[in-house]
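In this section we walk through a basic example: taking a raw amino acid sequence and producing a predicted 3D structure, encoded as discrete structure tokens. The instruction is simple. Fold the sequence below.
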Amino acid sequence: MTTQDREWLGQALDLARSGYALASPNPGVGALVVDAAGAKVGEGCHVYEGRKHAEVLALEQAGAAARGATLYVSLEPCSTQGRTPPCVNAILAARIARVVAASRDRNPAVDGSGFAALRQNGVEVEEADGELAASAQRLNEAFFYFSRTKRPLVTLKTALTLDGKIAAPDDNTGWITSEKARAHVQQVRHRHDAIMTGIGTVHADDCLLTDRTGLPRRRALMRVIADSLLRIPLNSRIVESANDDLVIATTSAAGQEKRRPLLERNITVQDFDSPNGRVDLHALLDWLGERELTSLMIEGGAKLNWAVLEAGIVNKVLLYFAPKILGGLESLPMVGGAGRRSRSGAIRLQNLRTIPVAADEFAVEADVINDTRESRQ
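The resulting token sequence is shown next.
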């Protein structure tokens, strides 16, 4: 793969990113057609409502110039019939000579079959590697995960001091991180289908949990509150701003009289009973998956953070570190609860990636190793 190939693929990835929040539950895909003289003659970005895939849009724009050209695409072209015919068919019909892809489609329905079909019909196929491939995989990791599990990919996000604290014991006015870091969080929220917090955070912060980027979305960011006894205040900002985008995850222990005023505001109140009397987080994920919400971001306090980690539902963590130290035994740590009683039982992470955010601030993204054989001592 040449340097020019990588530059064109970078542009295809940029096109795919322009479809954030517009393509779900489909993957974000960007494509462009480059003729034999090295000129771009077509490009496309997939959005769900538009139905047509990025490859088809790029080929239609290129027209006859697609014959003998190279198609650069951020994701392996599909080979199966869905809402539209397979993209492989359109590529073959356009007489594309070469396809260069940034990522294989990890959806089990495709996973290499698109590449195989192209090669079998004489089209040269090249796949990217290294950071380019990794970036393409990250772009659609929620789609890949949802395709396999029918559950949203869960990311636990928190802002904390360098000594791991998220709140002071007395005065919690102000922010832990900078305005730039908070703007970065909004960009991350924009890439998610749903966001969740606990009732404790609603009481403490009167949060909104909205996507404030101002960028277009196909669906509103679904806001989810874990509230086993329906203690949510009716005058909270999140209730008052509800517009068919708020779900209260509760239990049958919450009385009917608490449900009525919420239901009157068209707020979804859904029971997820568990033996311990709390919200069954696994059942909640299944419910969200049934609604084709492919990604869930959790922004909670120490109690909820422990509950979701201990339940084994977190796939990734995204930790924003501020250049501050609170210290003390009363300042709240990122994760509360019972915790693990031995080092060998610690929840482990892998594939750590550092993200520069602002001067003296950074974020750490990592995958959570959810091993059911892990010690619970």
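Looking at the output, two observations stand out. Residues 3-17 form the longest helix (15 residues). The CA atoms of residues 21 and 219 lie 7 Å apart. In the next section we compare this with other chains.
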